[in-house]
Amino acid sequence: MDPILEVVALILGFLSWIMVGVAIPNRYWKVSTIDGTVITTSTIYENLWMSCATDSTGVHNCREFPSMLALSGYIQASRALMIAAVVSGSFGVVCTLIGMQCSKAAGDNYVLKGRIAGTGGVFFLLQGLCTMVSASWYAFNITQDFFNPIYPGQKYEIGEGLYMSWASGTLAICGGACLMFSCKFGTEEKSGYPYQPSRGTVYSASASRKDVQSTYGRNAYV
Fold first, then answer.
1. What does the pLDDT look like over 115-132, one tens digit per residue?
2. Three-class SS of residue 179?
3. d(C-alpha 91, C-alpha 213), whole Å
4. Radius of gyration from C-alpha coordinates of the chain
5. H or E element in which residue 62 lies
6. Disulfide check for 126: which of 3, 88, 116, 136 has CB 3.0–4.6 Å away?
7. pLDDT of res. 194
8. C-alpha–C-alpha distance, residues 20 and 122, integer Å
């Protein structure tokens, strides 16, 4: 396994894990486009856990969603996927740290280290897929309501929390792919063995002369 590729994959996976942890509590997953006055509300924004409002004077007021079962299905699924992404990223970081060549956790068994690092790459891929599906599903519902001319409720636009989630998913997928490809290249490089001639194919000069004499007879030599 290439150690440089390991370090790059670890950095990408760790950054993606940090970003998904920051994106979950971010309040700006979807933002309204209302421009109000001092009396009316100017901005409404929501995430997976709460809904907030702020007026033109800068006063913020947030309330958590009262019941999880009363929420829309895509919000519940997005919550579960984001939590699964955080858990998968945690396992990915731990497995990658153990499986790196510079780590002493698994001793000098580089085959075992390569497998552990490859497992970390799988966890990073799972993190990226969960994050991308969650953010894309949430954004799909926002755009569907926004472009629906007969939608009676408040229309929202995509907030910065979704962009952060997409960036986190992209980094996680890149880090997991680097780990898996590095493990593959490492096994291919170690698959060849140096050529060692067999002892049975070595003949001495006297043995070869006896074979020639027995085949052609003594009269073949002058």
1. 888 899 999 999 999 999
2. helix
3. 72
4. 31
5. strand 60-64
6. 88
7. 47
8. 17
Partners of 55 in the beta sheet? 41
Average pLDDT over residues 77-86: 94
From its phi and psi, is residue 169 left (phi > 0), alpha (psi between -120 and 50) or beta? alpha
Domain segments of the chain: what residues? 3-26+68-188
pTM: 0.75
Higher pLDDT, 137 or 113: 137
Cβ atoms of 2 and 117 within 8 Å: the answer is no
CA atoms within 13 A on the CB side of 150: 0
- 127 or 37: which leads in pLDDT: 127
Tokens of 140: 């799909």
Q: For the domain with range 3-26+68-188, which CATH number is right: 3.90.1170.20, 3.40.47.10, 1.10.40.30, 1.20.140.150?
A: 1.20.140.150
**pLDDT tens, position by position, 164-220:** 999 999 999 999 998 887 765 444 444 444 444 444 444 444 444 555 455 555 554
Are 182 and 6 spatial neighbours (Cβ–Cβ below 8 Å)?
yes
Phi, psi of 153 (to 5 degrees): -85, -170
